[in-house]
Amino acid sequence: MTLLTLHAVRLLGFADTPTVAARFSQDPGLVESQLIDAGVNGLVSHSTFAGTSGWSLSSLGRAENQRLLAEELDRTGARIAVLAVHEDFADINTGVVAACSAIQLQTSPSEDAMDVLIGALASWRPLEAQLTGLLPRFGGYSERLLLALKHAVQDTAWLAATDRDSFHRAWFELHEDLIATLGIQRQ
């Protein structure tokens, strides 16, 4: 089982094979084979919910993902850099969580909330650049966040909806990626 396939399932929570493969630009046939093997080994399970089929991690799969992530940090020597980025991210995250909560409670987002999200993206970009030099799998978050903000100009659901790659959804995944990489719990 490769780190990227198992980690994609963790970050996505519940996803079909093409979505798991697309998360880190992997070959869908290879990913399908890896997921089937992982299912046989109890790392993932395949289920159907509300007419949608997909893969999710088992507790054993989550433990294996943590082991592979720790091994990656040791192999790349990236632990200190990821810890530093996480500290900076935590400061930014407080504002993003408050802004997304405000957006979800309003019929239209306030200019202040939008400014917070735009500022968060600007603050995240150099942090992403630091990480991708050591762990390329962190690449792409800035692009996803920017695309969500661009879509939000026409449809504010792109800020916090769960049915698309909204700003909130991409940011939540980024947060999960950071804490999973460090082996810490979400606060």
Commentary on this structure:
This protein is mainly α and 187 residues long. The protein is built from nine helices and two strands; from the N terminus they run H-H-H-E-E-H-H-H-H-H-H. It has helices at 3-12, 17-23, 28-40, 59-76, 79-105, 111-134, 141-152, 157-160, 167-182, and strands spanning 44-49, 52-57. The protein has a two-stranded antiparallel sheet with strand order 1-2. It is globular and about 50 Å long. The two termini are 29 Å apart. 31% of the residues are buried. The model has no long low-confidence stretch (mean pLDDT 93).
Distance between the termini: 29 Å
Query: What is the overall pLDDT average?
Result: 93
Low-pLDDT sequence parts: none
Q: Helical amount among residues, as a percent range?
A: over 70%
Give me the strand/helix succession.
HHHEEHHHHHH
Counting H and I runs of at least 4 residues, what is the number of helices? 9
- Structural class per helix/strand content? mainly alpha
The major beta sheet can be summarized as: 2 strands, antiparallel
Topology:
Blueprint: H1 3-12, H2 17-23, H3 28-40, E1 44-49, E2 52-57, H4 59-76, H5 79-105, H6 111-134, H7 141-152, H8 157-160, H9 167-182
Antiparallel strand pairs: 1-2
Helix pairs in contact: 1-4, 2-3, 5-6, 5-9, 6-7, 7-9
Characteristic terms for this protein:
187 residues, mainly alpha, two-stranded antiparallel sheet, 70% helix
Summary of the model, kept short:
Helix content is 70%, strand content 6%.
